[in-house]
Write a structure and sequence with these properties.
GO biological process, one term: DNA-mediated transformation
Family: Belongs to the DprA/Smf family.
Largest sheet: 9 strands, mixed
InterPro entries: DprA, DprA_WH, DrpA_SLOG, WH-like_DNA-bd_sf
Number of domains: 3
Distance between the termini: 48 Å
Mean pLDDT: 90
Radius of gyration: 23 Å
Strand content: 5-15%
Helix content: 40-55%
Order of helices and strands: HHHHHHEHEEHEHEHEHEHEHEHHEHHEE
Protein name: DNA processing protein DprA
CATH topology of the largest domain: Rossmann fold
Shape: elongated
Pfam family, one: DNA_processg_A
Number of helices: 17
CATH class of the largest domain: Alpha Beta
C-alpha cells in the first residue's frame, strides 16, 4: 500500500501521460523511488533531459495532495490505483494504463461484459436512433455500455442504456467535476445515479483537444469490444477502433448509407474486416454471449396473440435498426394510413419504439 499514494501523485502530475510515467517507474524501480529522484538523476534519463527534469521537479514541488484529498471527499469521488482491486481488470491489461483513475458513481461488477459504443458528434437521425436502440437492447440484456459522453452517438448510447435502467460508464476527457459538453449536465447526473463517470484527469482539469485521444484508449481498454455506430473517415471513433485493435479487442460496426460521408468510416471498417452488426444478437454472438436472453419480435418467439393482420405484418417488417415510415410501408405493402395506425397500436402495446428522427424499431430482437 506504500506505493498507492505515489501512484496518485504521478497521476496528478502527469495525467494523460501513462506511458511516460511507466517508463520512469520502470527506470527507478518503483513509483516512490521515481518520485523522490533528484533533478540530477532525472536529467540523466534520455527520454527526460535537463530542461524537462527541471520542469518536472518544479511541478512536483507545487503539488497539493492534501487539498485534492479534501476536495475528492466533498465531490464523493474515489481514486483507484493500478494496484487496487477495484481498478478495472481489463484496463490493467492495456499497454499504457493510467496509474490511477478518478471515479464518481459506482463501477459495474467485473462480471458484466462491457461494450464500447462510439461515433460521430454530428450524427444523422439514423445514427442516433441506431445507437440509442441498440444500447438499450444490450444494456437490458446485462451488458455495460461504455462511451465518452460526447455530443451525438456517445450521448445516445448512454441514454439508451439509462432508459432500461442498464449499466453505463462515461469516460471523460476532463476532470470528474467538469461537465463537457455543458448541455450534458443532466445526462451526467443520470449516469452518476445508475452508473459511473471515470477519468484519468484530476478534478478541475478543463477539456483540451489532446485529452480525447487519451480518453479513447481508456474507452476501448474498459471494453471487450468497440462498436462504431456512425463515423466519418477521419474521426475520434476510428481512433478508438485503432486502440481497440492494438489492445486485442474486437471491432464491430453498424453499416450506414453509402452516400453519406458520416458513414464512410464505419463502412470502411467493415470492408477491412470489422464485424457487421445489424441486431443485438450479432454483438452477443461476437462476445460469446449467445445464451443471454433477448426478447424476440413477432414471428421469432414473441407472443403476437391479439394483434391484427396489419399489426403482424408491420412487426415482421421491423428490424432492430431504425426504419423510416416510408421504408416500413414499402416492406409491408400496406397503405400509409394502415401502417401509421398499426405503429400507433404497437407502440402502445410495447412492441415497437419511436426513435429520434421519426424512426421506428422493434422493441426487442
Amino acid at each position: 500500500m506504500q506505493n498507492r499514494q505515489y501512484w496518485i501523485y504521478w497521476q496528478m502530475l502527469m495525467p494523460g501521460a501513462g506511458r511516460r510515467v511507466w517508463d520512469l517507474v520502470n527506470y527507478f524501480g518503483s513509483p516512490k523511488q521515481a518520485w523522490e529522484a533528484a533533478e540530477s538523476e532525472l536529467s540523466e534519463i534520455p527520454f527526460i533531459g535537463r530542461d524537462d527534469a527541471k520542469k518536472l521537479v518544479k511541478r512536483r514541488e507545487s503539488l497539493q495532495y492534501g487539498k485534492l484529498v479534501e476536495y475528492l471527499k466533498k465531490l464523493n469521488c474515489a481514486v483507484f490505483t493500478i494496484e487496487d482491486e477495484a481498478y478495472p481488470s481489463l484496463l490493467k491489461t492495456i499497454y499504457d494504463p493510467p496509474p490511477a483513475i478518478f471515479v464518481r458513481g459506482a463501477l459495474p461488477s467485473g462480471e458484466n461484459a462491457a461494450l464500447a459504443m462510439v461515433g460521430s458528434r454530428q450524427p444523422t437521425p439514423y445514427g442516433l436512433a441506431a445507437a440509442e436502440s441498440l444500447a438499450g437492447e444490450l444494456a437490458g440484456a446485462g451488458l455495460t455500455i461504455i462511451s465518452g459522453m460526447a455530443r451525438g452517438i456517445d450521448s445516445a448510447a448512454h441514454r439508451g442504456a439509462l432508459k432500461v435502467n442498464g449499466s453505463t460508464v462515461a469516460v471523460l476527457g476532463c476532470g470528474p467535476d467538469v461537465v463537457y459538453p455543458r448541455e450534458n449536465e443532466r445526462l451526467m447526473k443520470q449516469i452518476l445515479e445508475k452508473g459511473a463517470v471515470l477519468t484519468e484527469f484530476p478534478p478541475g482539469t478543463a477539456p483540451k483537444p489532446w485529452h480525447f485521444p487519451c480518453r479513447n484508449r481508456i474507452i476501448s481498454g474498459l471494453s471487450s469490444a468497440v462498436l462504431v455506430v456512425e463515423a466519418a473517415e477521419k474521426s475520434g471513433a476510428l481512433i478508438t477502433a485503432d486502440f481497440a485493435l492494438e489492445q486485442g479487442r474486437e471491432v464491430l460496426a453498424i453499416p450506414g448509407n453509402i452516400n453519406s460521408s458520416k458513414s464512410a468510416g464505419a463502412n470502411k471498417l467493415i470492408r477491412q474486416g470489422a464485424r457487421l452488426i445489424t441486431r443485438p444478437a450479432d454483438v452477443l454472438e461476437e462476445l460469446g454471449l449467445g445464451d443471454i436472453s433477448l426478447h424476440n419480435r413477432c414471428g421469432k418467439g414473441l407472443d403476437c396473440a391479439g394483434l391484427t393482420g396489419n399489426e403482424k405484418k408491420v412487426m415482421q417488417a421491423l428490424t432492430h435498426l431504425p426504419m423510416s415510415l416510408e421504408q416500413i410501408i414499402d416492406e409491408c405493402r400496406l397503405e400509409p394510413k394502415e401502417v401509421a395506425a398499426a405503429l400507433t397500436v404497437l407502440e402502445l402495446k410495447g412492441f415497437t419504439r419511436i426513435l429520434p428522427g421519426k424512426m421506428y424499431a422493434a422493441a426487442g430482437l
